[in-house]
Write a structure and sequence with these properties.
Blueprint lengths: L3 H15 L4 E6 L22 E4 L2 E5 L4 E5 L5 E5 L9 E7 L2 E6 L6 E5 L7 H5 L13 H8 L6 H7 L8 H10 L13 H20 L40 E5 L2 E5 L7
Antiparallel strand pairs: 1-6, 2-3, 3-4, 4-8, 5-7, 6-7, 9-10
The protein binds a DNA duplex (16 and 16 nucleotides) through helix 4 and helix 5.
DNA sequence: AAGTGGACCTGCTAGC
DNA sequence: TGCTAGCAGGTCCACT
């Protein structure tokens, strides 16, 4: 579920309200992708600081150390005063006097990991190797062109990998390639310089627009207030196999790349 | 070393 | 109506 826009929308929906809140309890449910790495009770009494984002990870800073959170494929966070009884898929509660931050994640690919800092393990290990943020000024056509030319994978695969640029998952990688009119099967080292410019811009604008629209709610994504996103209503190719391309009318296709579905228009997305 | 495929886990949907 | 296969927004790890 959550790609950069969903994670950012989630962050924006609770960061201000939780800042300064004192932790009064922690509840841990079923195991997530990685163990918490600390006794949950050691969080009690600490005060939450800034909430920031790196790629699809959230970092809840405390006075010393912090929680690195990932929503996996099916995770979402809620932050409310009236938190009900924990359900079968509620695997982490951070209870504060201002409300409870609850991670709900049916598939449990998500994670909540305690780390002394972002520069130390385990956070460091998880964030090492991540590419540039899409809104980093250094993420431009030159950078993208150079990075893509170091590899020989399909350009869609390179975008999804996160080693070049973070944040575009399956929906937004497909959408950005449609926007840039690039065939997702194009080998990364065959993307021309002008098209790298176009693609860098498309990644940025696609993700930015998705944040403005509250992300994509395909089935169950909600921000921390319970608000659904609406980008999915504007998707040009994702999930539209068999339908006419809104730009050229050609039938949108679904193929499989690296065990992931790719949607594209064979009419106007060229190699 | 880089590229590929399997693994993790649960729920929903389409099709028989 | 009920069962089953296939599919889903991510990413780590083992293997070639």
């Amino acid at each position: 579920m959550p790609e950069l826009p969903e994670v950012e929308v989630t962050r924006l929906s609770f960061a201000e309200r939780i800042r300064g809140a004192r932790v009064i309890g922690v509840r841990v449910g079923k195991p997530l992708r990685w163990p918490l790495g600390a006794d949950p009770q050691t969080l009690v009494g600490r005060t939450v600081g800034d909430v920031s984002r790196r790629g699809k990870y959230l970092w809840l800073a405390f006075e010393r150390g912090g929680l690195l959170m990932h929503l996996g494929m099916s995770g979402s966070l809620a932050f409310t005063m009236q938190t009900g009884e924990a359900g079968a898929h509620d695997h982490f509660d951070l209870v504060t006097a201002r409300g409870t931050l609850r991670l709900t994640d049916p598939r449990r690919f998500g994670a909540v990991v305690w780390s002394p800092s972002l520069d130390e393990a385990p956070a460091h290990k998880l964030l090492a190797g991540l590419g540039l943020e899409p809104f980093d000024p250094r993420f431009d056509g030159t950078y993208l062109y150079t990075s893509l030319h170091r590899r020989k994978v399909a350009v869609k695969t390179a975008l999804l990998g996160g080693e070049v640029v973070v944040g575009a998952g399956n929906i937004y990688a497909c959408e950005a390639l449609w926007e840039a009119q690039i065939d997702p099967r194009t080998r990364s080292d065959r993307v021309s310089r002008p098209r790298a410019d176009h693609l860098a811009a498309a990644v940025r604008t696609t993700l930015a627009r998705a944040v403005e629209l509250g992300g994509s709610t395909l089935r169950d994504f909600r921000d921390a207030h319970g608000m659904a996103g609406s980008f999915q209503l504007q998707a040009r190719v994702y999930g539209r196999a068999g339908q006419a391309c809104v730009r050229c009318g050609t039938t949108v296709r679904r193929i499989v790349q690296g065990a992931r579905a790719t949607f594209f228009c064979p009419g106007c997305q060229k190699r």
